[in-house]
Amino acid sequence: MNANYRWIGLTFIACFTKVLFGQSNWYNQQWNDGKVELELKKLMNPKKVLYIAAHPDDENTRLIAYFENVLHVDVAYLSLTNGSGGQNLISEELGYDLGLIREQELYAARRHDGGEQFFTSATDFGYSKTHTETFKKWNKEKILGEVVYRIRAYQPDIIITRFAPYTEGLNRTHGHHTASAILALEAFKLAADKDAYPRQLEKVDTWNTRAIFWNSSWWSYGGKERLDSIAATNPEKYKKLQIESYVDELGLTSSEIASNSRSMHKSQGFGTRPYYGPNFEYLELLDGDGAALDALVNPYIPQTEYEKLLNNARFAKADAIPGFLKQAIMRKMGDEDDAELTRLKDLYLKSIKSRVFVTADQPLLAVGKHTVNISLLHFHKWPVFIGSIRLGDAKLDINQNLEPGVLLEKDLQVQLDDPYQNPKVSIAIDGIRLNIPLVYRTSDPVQGEVIQKVFTIKPVTLTIEQPELISINGELKQTPVFLNVHTSIDSAILHVMHSDTIYYADTLRNLVEGTTITQYLSPPAGKSEVRLVLPNRVQVHKKHYTLKHNHIPWIQVTAPAQLTNHSIMVVCPAKKIGYVAGAGDKVAEFTRSMGVEVEALDYTSVTAEELAQYDAVVFGIRSLNVHEDIDKYLPVFYTYAENGGTLIMQYNTSHRLKTSNLKGLKLSRDRVTEEDSRVIADTNAVVLNKPNTITPKDFEGWVQERGLYFPNSWPYGSVTPLKMADSEGDWYTGSLVIQDLGKGKFVYTGLSFFRELPAGVSGAYKLWANLLSL
Ligand SMILES: [Zn+2]
């Protein structure tokens, strides 16, 4: 082969926006004296653990449940990313929205195991082979600073990592994982160093964490017995904990708590059942003083007056607990930012066996005047005195004792001025000011009671059906934009802004509350912004939508109202193709956008003669993994190719392959995970020249990765026109393998067309058109 290879080195900068959303605490947890006592034990014990890993689901809920509920030591899980790069097993959301769902799943998990939850701004950009690749994308200094800050603010006694800070032995894992441990280990030292990130010291003090451990697993040592024997020879370094216990206060075993927690990761399909029996965890000392762990494992003896007060409270009769709590709250008063004060106040409200609701009649409230309803009820002998109730400038004085079992209901007229937030109502009970979220309460015929936080919005909200448009060869594309009117207004002006100028403007009149106005917009190529100008200079720049799932609170998403029109010029002589659906991808849909007719094929019934009408026949991703009986029907497709057709198979995983009939191809786990990886192209190859000429530019702007599960062996004479390699990886030649089959072609490609076409990557369209037109 007379190959003329060229190097292509590329860079790609990912762009993310951040919006705020609802916080973690949630209503409707059942409380009793046992739970109050458990919370008192935790409040009394000042010991803390910071658990650090990379993703939602990395955290070991067994260990967290044990520390929290058996040792009464607070644990916070610092997940460096929010998991936005993963798959979603329960619904359609991916990317940014999936990250928001996973954040809420972590908060929901912590409500079960009792831990706290934190994040950094590190993005989950998909699979990464090494920590070096990870740090290239994360901005290591910045993320390290965030980990240091969290340690200084949380002040843990020990830090625990889920992963090893090195990749030797059996510890090679996702680059994010190794990176999380490396950052934890560096931050462990830096948090105590006043010269590290000195600007943080205006807000937090330096902090000396006593020790850092790796929560090692037997799989890192090749077996349970092996880890046991290594640990036994070095008890100073390896701490073995028997974590299984019965938590009386909750009536649950620690495994049950852990599996309830783990099962909140529903978008990842991580529901689990508890394990009954002895359950061991290993903590392997990475740095610091290993004895720090003993201080956590041994029962804590209250030291300060405050701790003694809480300790006395837990031995007191239930009737007296509110009195103790009130004393503890008074001691903490004055520092309203103190997280412990919030916990004490919350516990106080539980201890008086109360139900306190401040409700609005809708989950979305436009800024302006509204009436909210306050209802208060308790079942405690303690004399509960209700003082004043405030929301913004609105105030209502009650000033009366509330008898047990008597429902107090009041309306309050309020003025809500700030959009995109959950208003808080302040209620004084027994001289303690409590902040209660404004909620929406309703009955759902299937779910029963639904309680969601109220979210304030502007008088009109925008939703954009298709924020990403792909326009092929100058074709005019449009998307509906919905204007949801929450407060009647006379007129509004809708603008589409492009490069800081108004590209399109339309005046809308007589917008009536409760209606939705649909506008069809055709943005120019590139990025545009939708803007709505309302009376009194109010502008709406953001779109808004709600993600609703039953296992987590609703997520109110506000994000810039942007439109992107990916304008792509591509020649595609193929006019009609057949598509065998695989595990689910949108390749057929985006192939249609090129003007190609795509027919869905039933692989079990189609004949080679019927296939002859198609310019190409394509298998969707993982077709050979998900169709149990595919092996039986493949010969029909190979006959189609032998008769002169073009058969294209997209990636399949090498395990769980339902056929070995791949015409001499062998699949491997080779993958190129850097979307801007080096690529060498055989510029003479027909597939890179006809009808579209593929140039280095066509490998720019790819998203998430190049491809995966490439073949590493193929029949002699096959054409492999692309070589690619991650910055530290091997060169792979199997991303695109084309072999002659009779009069036709059999194309196998692990390139991620399923990601690149929906993302509007121009080069991927051109290469895809060339493949369809071989
Ligand atoms: Zn992970």
Instruction: Figure out the total of helices.
Output: 18
Q: Name the beta content range.
A: 25-35%
- Rg over C-alpha atoms, rounded to the nearest angstrom: 30 Å
Q: Between the first and last Cα atoms, what is the distance in angstroms?
A: 19 Å
Please provide the count of β strands: 41
Task: Give the cofactors and ligands.
Answer: zinc ion
Overall pLDDT level: 92
Low-confidence stretches: 1-25
Described by the principal axes of the CA atoms, the overall outline is globular
What summary fits the major beta sheet?
Answer: 8 strands, mixed
Class inferred from helices and paired strands:
alpha/beta
The proportion of residues forming helix, as a percent range, comes to: 10-25%
Describe what this molecule looks like in 3D.
- This protein is an alpha/beta fold.
- The strands form 10 sheets. Strands 11, 13, 14, 15, 16, 17, 18 and 19 form an 8-stranded mixed sheet that branches. It has a 7-stranded mixed sheet with strand order 4-3-2-5-6-10-7, with helices on both faces. Strands 22, 24, 25, 27, 28 and 31 form a 6-stranded mixed sheet that branches.
- α2 packs across α8 and α4 packs across α6 (175-190).
- It is globular, with a radius of gyration of 30 Å.
- Residues 1-25 have low confidence and may be disordered.
Summary tags:
774 residues; alpha/beta; 8-stranded mixed beta sheet; 7-stranded mixed beta sheet; 18 helices; binds zinc ion
